[in-house]
Write a structure and sequence with these properties.
Elements (H helix, E strand, L loop, with lengths): L4 H6 L3 H15 L10 H12 L17 H16 L4 H5 L1 E4 L2 E4 L11 H5 L14 E5 L5 H9 L4 E6 L2 H13 L6 E5 L12 E6 L6 H5 L21 H13 E10 L4 H7 L6 E2 L9 E5 H7 L10
Parallel strand pairs: 3-4, 3-6, 4-5, 6-7
Antiparallel strand pairs: 1-2, 7-9, 8-9
Bound molecules: S-adenosylmethionine.
S-adenosylmethionine binds next to helix 7 and strand 4.
Length: 311
């Protein structure tokens, strides 16, 4: 696509650029999956974000004229979205999750977990909010789940774990941004291995890598900007869960639960753990593969890992 004076001369308003971006995105056959599902929403997210305007800007402002510098900037980011297939949140350095803005860059996955809708209701009915003192987010990335959990359970300590140091530092930054730095402990850890044995955990929330080898080969170009280690999890996508679930069995409190996400990997999870009693959660806002595993079910499935569990 030619970035021409013609474009900046003929397109003048916020609405002009949203419309033009949407038409150009459709023509280029982009993939939408990082916060939007269609060209017009994608165009609005990019144009409004690049102009530092709120994502829910009143449409009356769409007729506002832009300066030449703003128009040139918009042509540049719209062109980059198309030519590089860079997802909008990386272009803007920001993604939204649970109504909160998180700083993101190519070192972390772009937040989009369907776990958001459960966090927003305090994981009801799976969790008694009063009893949650200790939450652990395994594979925290930008820290979006950990920060949202800290706000949902203000009395709880939240350990935000990731094997990547860059994710740990971005999580600390995002926790400070949302005023929960004193509650969210971002740490580098291989799954739960970096945590001390005590105290025990009331709630583990996790969306570790779960894309299988076949799906990795078929990923649209947009996803190739994300860290491979945040997505790929071996032949059947269950490599991380295979190690994590036995660890969780020994770390959860008696009434503790693990709430996990495996996306399209539901069948693979059931094949990998035929003896594990889990409940699949019906999601109202889209997405798939969210399950609840209670401590007792995990211990029954992995008795050899839980022999020393005290409580
Ligand atoms: C699917 S991403 C989820 C990121 C974040 N929770 C979100 O929803 O945006 C998986 C995360 O797990 C991390 N990860 C991969 N292997 C890990 C391991 N062995 N221990 C801890 N974290 C791991 C990756 O670095 C990545 O940040």
């Amino acid at each position: 696509m030619a970035m021409s004076d013609d474009t900046t001369n003929s397109l003048l308003t916020v609405g002009d650029y949203i419309r033009w971006a949407a038409s150009s995105f459709e023509q280029a056959g982009l993939h939408y999956g990082h916060g939007t599902t269609n060209a017009i929403d994608e165009a609005a997210a990019l144009v409004l974000g690049a102009l530092k305007l709120p994502p829910d800007l009143h449409p009356a402002y769409f007729a506002s004229r832009l300066t030449l510098a703003e128009r040139k900037r918009l042509v540049a980011v719209i062109t980059e979205r198309i030519e590089q297939r860079r997802p909008v949140p990386y272009l803007l350095g920001e993604a939204w999750f649970c109504g909160l803005a998180f700083e993101v860059d190519e070192r972390v996955l772009i937040p989009r977990s369907p776990l958001a809708e459960l966090i927003e209701v305090g994981f009801a009915p799976w969790v008694d909010p009063e009893s949650v003192q200790r939450v652990v987010d395994v594979g925290t990335g930008s820290g979006c789940i950990a920060v949202a959990c800290a706000l949902a359970f203000p009395q709880a300590r939240v350990d935000a774990l990731d094997i990547e140091s860059a994710a740990v530092s971005l999580t600390a930054h995002n926790a400070a941004r949302h005023g929960v730095a004193g509650q969210v402990y971002a740490q580098r850890s291989d799954l739960l291995e970096g945590l001390p044995e005590e105290p025990i955990i009331d709630l583990i929330v996790t969306n570790p890598p779960y894309v299988d080898a076949r799906a990795m080969l078929a990923l649209p170009p947009e996803y190739r900007h994300e860290p491979r280690n945040a997505l790929a999890a071996g032949a059947d996508g269950m490599d991380a869960m295979r190690r994590l679930l036995p660890q969780a069995a020994r770390r959860l409190s008696t009434d503790g639960v693990l709430i996990g996400e495996v996306g399209h990997g539901a069948a693979a999870l059931e094949r990998a753990f035929p003896d594990l009693r889990i409940t699949w959660v019906e999601l109202e806002h889209g997405g798939a593969g969210v399950f609840v595993a209670e401590a007792a079910a995990l211990r029954a499935c992995f008795p050899e890992h839980t022999a020393e569990t005290a409580n």
